[in-house]
């Protein structure tokens, strides 16, 4: 059996779509769930075994009188993938920007800069963190007030959207999306 040091330096060829972290190991928060499968695990035999286990578990639940319905999201208790982490992070950041003061104190501006500047150093997806860090060097954060910060954040998000081939968000609608809700009142 190899020791921990040997394992951490061993590099294997990743599954297509799997992103490796700086340590050379598969990076779950950098990779979409659909690409988490280790090499060779996508076989029909493995899928059949998983299906049989699922069926057996459902049959056992039925026999015991428990609800046998599968969970709404079978990955709900798995670590976040790159898509979940990204959505959650953008939701947090945009919502924070929407409630940031119009005239923030020096302490509030300093705290916001600390939060934003920590992302490239601490974000779990190293690839995402690196892109954000480079983008922030080109476009330093504007924490002078709620409107300016919301616009800056929306523009950074759109930079990511373009890089990922997604549509751009209309930055004139940040309050509608992240603070007030649509004019039709369906979020009230």
Automatic annotation (TrEMBL):
One of its GO terms (cellular component) is mitochondrial intermembrane space. PROSITE patterns: ERV_ALR. Residues 78-178 form the ERV/ALR sulfhydryl oxidase domain. Its cofactor is FAD. Residues 1-24 are annotated as: Disordered. GO terms for molecular function: flavin adenine dinucleotide binding; flavin-dependent sulfhydryl oxidase activity. It is found in: Mitochondrion intermembrane space. Keywords: Disulfide bond, FAD, Flavoprotein, Mitochondrion, Oxidoreductase. It catalyses: 2 R'C(R)SH + O2 = R'C(R)S-S(R)CR' + H2O2. Residues 1-13 have a biased composition (Polar residues). Its EC number is 1.8.3.2. This is Sulfhydryl oxidase. It comes from Athelia psychrophila.
């Amino acid at each position: 059996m190899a020791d921990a040091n040997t394992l951490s330096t061993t590099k294997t060829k990743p599954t297509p779509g799997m992103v490796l972290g700086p340590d050379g190991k598969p990076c779950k928060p950098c990779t979409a769930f659909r690409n988490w499968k280790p090499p060779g695990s996508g076989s029909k035999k493995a899928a059949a075994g998983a299906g049989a286990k699922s069926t057996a578990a459902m049959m056992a639940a039925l026999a015991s009188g428990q609800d046998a319905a599968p969970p709404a999201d079978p990955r709900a208790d798995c670590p976040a993938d790159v898509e979940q982490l990204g959505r959650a992070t953008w939701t947090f950041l945009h919502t924070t920007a929407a409630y940031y003061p119009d005239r923030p104190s020096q302490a509030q501006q300093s705290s916001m800069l600390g939060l934003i500047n920590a992302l490239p150093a601490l974000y779990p997806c190293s690839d995402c963190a690196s892109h954000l860090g480079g983008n922030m060097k080109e476009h330093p954060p504007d924490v002078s007030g709620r409107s300016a910060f919301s616009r800056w954040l929306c523009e950074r998000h759109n930079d990511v959207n373009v890089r990922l081939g997604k549509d751009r968000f209309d930055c004139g609608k940040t309050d509608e999306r992240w603070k007030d809700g649509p004019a039709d009142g369906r979020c009230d």
